[in-house]
Amino acid sequence: MTSKGFTTKIVHSDRLLNIEYGALHAPIHNAVAYGFNEVQGLIDVFQGAAGHAYARQSTPTIDALQQKIKTIDNGIASIVFASGMAAVVTTFLALLKSGDHLICSRFLFGSTNSVMNTLQNYGVEVTLVDATNIAEVEEAKQSNTRMVFVETIANPVTQIAALQEIGELCARQKLVYVIDNTVASSYLFDASTVGASLIVTSLSKYVAGHGNALGGAITDTGIFDWQNYPNIFEAYQKGDAKMWGIKQLLKKGLRDMGGCLSSQMAHLISIGCETMALRMDRQCDNAMSLAVFLDAHPKVAKVYYPGLKSHPQHEMAKKLFKKFGAILSFDLNESEDCGALLNKLKIVILATHLGDNRTLALPVAATIFAEGGLDMRLKMGISETMVRCSMGIENTIDLINDFKQALD
Ligand SMILES: *Cc1c(COP(=O)(O)O)cnc(C)c1O
Prior knowledge:
Radius of gyration: 22 Å
Order of helices and strands: HHHEHEHEHEHEHEEHHHEHEHEEHEH
Structural class: alpha/beta
Largest sheet: 7 strands, mixed
CATH architecture of the largest domain: 3-Layer(aba) Sandwich
Number of strands: 12
CATH superfamily of the largest domain: Type I PLP-dependent aspartate aminotransferase-like (Major domain)
CATH class of the largest domain: Alpha Beta
Distance between the termini: 51 Å
CATH topology of the largest domain: Aspartate Aminotransferase, domain 2
Helix content: 25-40%
Strand content: 5-15%
Shape: globular
Bound molecules: pyridoxal-5'-phosphate
């Protein structure tokens, strides 16, 4: 199947699992436990054979979604979680230990940023760096560094990490390279091309797309050699070394920490992900058109969108990504009130979240960056008039007209 296109592979993946009665969609298996006719069957599943015993680790519906995510991410194995944050935090807790050092982008999703001081409380050293600057990342390396964590397109300012150079650094220094690919998504950007070891994604956003299910995923790209990693427990240093990392994430992470996705939600995400490429093409095109419109508007001081030539990482984005993503932010002129503008929007919905079919907008300083205060906002380059938009699939002209009437 590898030679087929992105969407072809996803929409035909359920059928390849030999679903009963030839159903085109894998059914929802809500059962928590699975029974066996012979005791050996139960023993085999407990000892690693394919099959299901208890829904905290797997169900046939979860398997079907994991198969799709593995295809989307072009990886060797994927596991799914109850939310993006469950996947993010499991990556750290299952693979790092006290005394380890983590290098992490300081342009981070708010909750991931908040996880960093939790990790420090557990004895993990954390250095936050400007991940767009490879020199700063290299300088942060210590003898106990185990992992580098970055996001592809940071939210809301849309900084893009030095993805390729960090990949080369991680390969040279044998560091686990974790990319949170939620905002670019594996449709726009195949993180294995820059050497990512693990791809972490919030399925709640572009993968599901409909905004009716939370979920998260970790995919192993097969690039990292886990034989070089000192934190793999002996129990998981068995069989194919390529699978040691994902096995530990499954057992120490998903099974023990319990952040498992329900089959109901897995099914909703499975349906959503089939239209991912169609939706994202439209969303990215809408973002590009709105960015150009806002950039030319006299009341707008600055637009942050990787598709604009003025964006500091525009050339890199052009080289690495299929399109420039579907979030954009903008600052109004200092004399303008972004709350007043937002209140005038008629189509665009005032809401947080990314990747919905509807266009959503919010005032950044007073919402997603309120907790850290003004100091934190200044450090992160967040102005008091910044608006973040998550583009939907509406007709472009309607969105532009909505912003036009609100601004004028
Ligand atoms: C939304 C988001 C998350 C968290 O995902 P949830 O599914 O909301 O828990 C993590 N990282 C990024 C970049 C996100 O945008």
